[in-house]
Design a protein that fits this description.
heterodimer; A: alpha/beta; 21 helices; about 35% helix; B: about 220 residues; alpha+beta; ten-stranded mixed sheet; two-stranded antiparallel ribbon; elongated
């Protein structure tokens, strides 16, 4: 145990429990007996990072293996950061309080674009050179994973390698390799280490690829610059989640974190095929867990954590083939022990509401639905597959069950959006409010409309589309705001400038690394928090580096264009995305592949995997029959 | 069945706040498999009650919680199962069955004892002198931040029941600690104008009965 973290230091910061590392189920493995050392960093505050299921999974998956250890680190809160800089203390891991530079591998999860400046801040606080090219023998390898690797190019110069796809098996493989290389004495030869890593399936070493550009600024090609390096790196995918590792002794934080509950992962992937959704594309195919496996995991999780709530986690839990049986069984089994069951995301239908009503002992004050768009036309464009009738049936069910507050999520700036689509949002909100007043007389129902701005993402049918400029997004927000005034109606929106920076980074290329660095140097960090977001840092950064953000965010991309991420393979084929783009333009829906009709996205044949459903479509209780 | 649990909170556990401890105990009790009684009503919660909050960064050798069980368990078994669910720095010192109608901890506890051990050399004679002069005063005004954030002057003298070098050069304090008003050990150090860094430990919580100070575990025997 190092002595970087003193009582004196802890006394000077708010929430010192963030930095203790002694939470229940934290793993403190012997440093010398386990030769491969990795620190996993969630580049945000402890409360956010400890809510991340991926961290819990990888922490357990690595630490249960002999010969390797995985510790945690997070972005320090600004008060701690000031103290570290003032006293010259390097950023440390939580378990052994060692400096990050003591580890062989420093791993970041890329959860959202607005964490990129925080990653640089953490590298700087650790005393590591920001650019991979400037790191030498004795420096840890900097590795990235998570959904951000769908297009990691803007941060590629900061990373030695990336892992594409599921990490449960791949990360222990990486650390086993590191252990061997250390033993064999190769660990200090970075090129050799990276060459061996690049030979592992799913690992992408950006420095082994050269990017060339056309005169118009678009990418001409991304090609390997070394023998034996694959032209495309394919993501890792666990074919069978029942056989995969799942942590049943996750860390129980002392502090209240954002998702302060058991996260029981019922499935991975989503079959809906919403055309804006990146997660729905890159986590394919859907793999469900067996009911008996889940019940067993839930029992162990309750016993080992003492949490009071089990959240059935996935991208769309109401779709899990046996969700009703699972939720009801768990709710009944743990009622006596004061443990409740919650469904984090409701589908827009009566089935979801009735299920929530049946199992949620702790009644949340509001129910949230995400129709995403305000008109049927636009919902068809995005392939949401939800009708106004579905929405009104769901909200009616909610009001009748006693909920009085309804929250609705929408996206502004979707492709083809016009004024009537926006007014449709306001109209829908008013109809729901009116419905609430009729169904719950004497009560005061409220309808909250929350809008985010559409950010076109890689691997989606909308990856060719321009984002609305900030001014247009702001005008749309204002228009909606003026139509959502009155008792019972609430309106909230996201800063359009944040969505703009997200859009620049989401489909950017390697040249943007210079702008990210410049923004960080000007003080940008923790930008997921509105109080820390500083647009001026980015404006100045683009100006200084001569990069045009509009080129990345606002340009209509050509269908034949080479994208910065085309040398990466997440299974979904470009032809399918193009087809979906054209169907969107035509307002044609594409069926959910749970229906049994293959949509031809390419994932199953490409990755050699199958959709894994537990029970199949027939077992799925149709809406309204609970 | 109602139980009173006495525990210590030392080392880095001192950096857990009152709310964090509350959450911690709810989960530790569930992990231990204790049949904690639940409150009735819309949003049931475990029947737990705590003593007065301990300030962040202060260690304690005498913290208390009362818990109601839906089934009878031997106190020794409770102690064993619960201790198995605690990280280093938290230790169960005592588990005692108390009458169902016993008054709540916060209703009886009115006094807290603290000890300050110094992290640097101190001049015992000088400290003794400061202590003597503080005790000789009839009023000891100390400023503390009020609810609006602006400093407010408060006379702490009536709340300082005992102050002595015991054992020297450690400083032992017996201070008022009740819903009506609590004196913080740091305020006494401030009034003594004593700036040597020290480690503060809460050594006891008491209910005053005339001239006697009874610990919560002594109230129901």
């Amino acid at each position: 145990m190092s002595h970087l973290v003193t009582d004196e230091l802890l006394k000077q910061v708010s929430k010192p429990a963030r930095y203790l590392g002694t939470e229940w189920n934290a793993v403190h493995k012997d440093w010398d007996e386990n030769p491969a050392h990795m620190v996993f960093i969630y580049p945000d505050l402890y409360e956010v990072g400890m809510s991340h299921l991926g961290l819990a999974i990888l922490y357990g998956a690595v630490n249960e293996q002999p010969g390797m250890l995985l510790e945690r680190a997070f972005a320090p809160a600004p008060d701690m950061e000031d103290l570290l800089r003032e006293k010259g203390i390097p950023l440390f891991s939580l378990e052994s309080h060692r400096p990050l530079t003591d580890f062989d591998v420093v791993g970041f999860t890329l959860q959202y674009e607005m964490s990129y400046t925080t990653i640089l801040n953490i590298l700087d606080l650790a005393g590591l050179p920001l650019l991979a090219a400037e790191r030498g023998p004795g420096h840890p390898l900097v590795v990235g994973g998570g959904p951000g690797v769908a297009n990691p190019e803007p941060v590629a110069p900061f990373f030695d390698c990336f892992l594409l796809g599921d990490g449960e098996e791949a990360l222990p493989e990486l650390l086993a390799l590191m252990g061997r290389l250390k033993k064999e004495g190769w660990a200090h030869d970075r090129r050799e280490v990276l060459a061996r890593i690049a030979a592992l399936p799913g690992f992408y070493v950006p420095s082994f690829y050269d990017v060339t550009y056309n005169t118009d600024g678009t990418v001409a090609a991304v090609v390997p610059n070394r023998d034996g390096i694959p032209a495309r790196v394919t993501k890792r995918v666990l074919p069978d989640l029942d056989a995969a590792y799942f942590p049943t002794r996750p860390i129980v934080p002392f502090l209240e974190v954002i998702h302060d509950r058991i996260m029981l992962e019922v499935m991975r992937g989503c079959t809906h095929g919403c055309r804006f959704c990146q997660a729905g594309a890159i986590y394919r195919p859907v793999r469900e867990r067996d009911l008996a496996v889940l019940l067993g995991q839930a029992e162990e999780l309750v016993r080992h954590t003492g949490h009071e709530e089990i959240s059935l986690t996935s991208l769309s839990t109401a779709d899990y083939s046996r969700v009703e049986e699972l939720a009801r069984t768990l709710a009944a089994a743990y009622e006596d022990r004061g443990v409740s069951v919650s469904l984090p995301s409701l589908r827009v239908d009566a089935f979801s509401v009735r299920l929530a009503e049946a199992v949620q002992r702790v009644r949340k004050s509001s129910l949230t639905f995400a129709p995403e768009a305000g008109s049927q036309r636009l919902r068809d464009v995005i392939n949401k597959g939800v009708t106004e009738d579905d929405i009104l049936t769901a909200t009616a069910e909610a009001f009748q069950a006693g909920w009085q507050a309804i929250k609705l999520y929408f996206m502004l700036g979707l492709p083809t959006e016009g004024e009537e689509d926006l007014l449709g949002i306001a109209g829908l909100a008013r109809r729901i409010l009116h419905q609430g007043r009729e169904l719950a007389p004497g009560k005061k129902p409220t309808v909250t409309v929350s809008v985010s701005s559409f950010v076109p993402k890689a691997w989606t049918a909308f990856q060719w589309e321009p984002q609305d400029v900030v001014k247009v997004l702001q005008e749309k927000q204002q228009l909606l705001r003026s139509h959502l005034k009155g008792p019972g109606l609430r309106f909230s929106w996201h800063d359009a400038r944040v969505s703009f920076i997200e859009a620049v980074l989401a489909r950017g290329d390697r040249r943007l690394a210079a702008a990210i660095m410049a923004a960080w140097r000007r003080g940008a960090r923790l930008e997921g928090w509105s109080e820390y977001f500083r647009y001026d840092c980015w404006e100045e950064a683009f100006e200084e580096t001569g990069l045009d953000p509009a080129f990345y965010a606002h340009r209509q991309r050509q269908e034949g264009e080479v994208f910065p991420w085309d040398h990466l393979d997440f299974g979904v084929v470009k032809g399918f995305l193009l087809r979906e783009r054209h169907r969107a333009r035509a307002g044609e829906l594409t069926a959910d592949c749970r229906s049994g009709r293959c949509t031809g996205c390419g994932v199953c044949p490409d990755l050699g995997v199958d959709l894994r459903l537990k029970g199949g479509p027939v077992d799925r209780a149709p809406a309204g029959e609970v | 069945m109602r139980l009173r649990v006495k525990y210590s909170k030392t080392g880095r556990m001192a950096f857990l706040g009152h709310l964090e401890m509350l959450r911690f105990w709810q989960r530790a009790l569930r992990r231990a498999g204790l049949p904690v009684a639940m409150s009735h009503g819309f949003n049931p919660h475990p029947r737990l009650a705590f003593g007065p909050a301990l300030a962040l960064g202060i260690e304690s050798l005498a913290e208390y919680l009362d818990v109601e069980l839906a089934a009878d368990w031997e106190p020794d078994r409770v102690r064993e199962e619960l201790q198995a669910q605690l990280p280093p720095g938290l230790a169960i010192l005592l588990v005692q069955v108390i009458p169902a109608g016993a008054p709540a901890l916060t209703a009886v506890i009115d006094t807290a004892a603290y000890r300050v051990s110094w992290l640097a050399a101190v001049d015992s004679g000088l400290l003794q002198q400061r202590v003597g002069s503080l005790l000789a005063r009839t009023e000891v005004p100390v400023s503390r931040p009020g609810k609006d954030g602006r400093p407010r002057v408060k006379d702490i003298r009536p709340g300082v029941l005992e102050l002595a070098l015991d054992p020297p050069p450690d400083l032992a304090m017996l201070l008022q600690c009740s819903p009506a008003g609590s004196i913080r050990p740091e305020e006494v150090l401030q009034a003594l104008d004593w700036e040597v860094p020290g480690r503060i430990t809460r050594t006891g919580l008491f209910a005053r009965r005339g001239d006697e100070f009874l610990a919560p575990e002594e109230l129901n025997s």
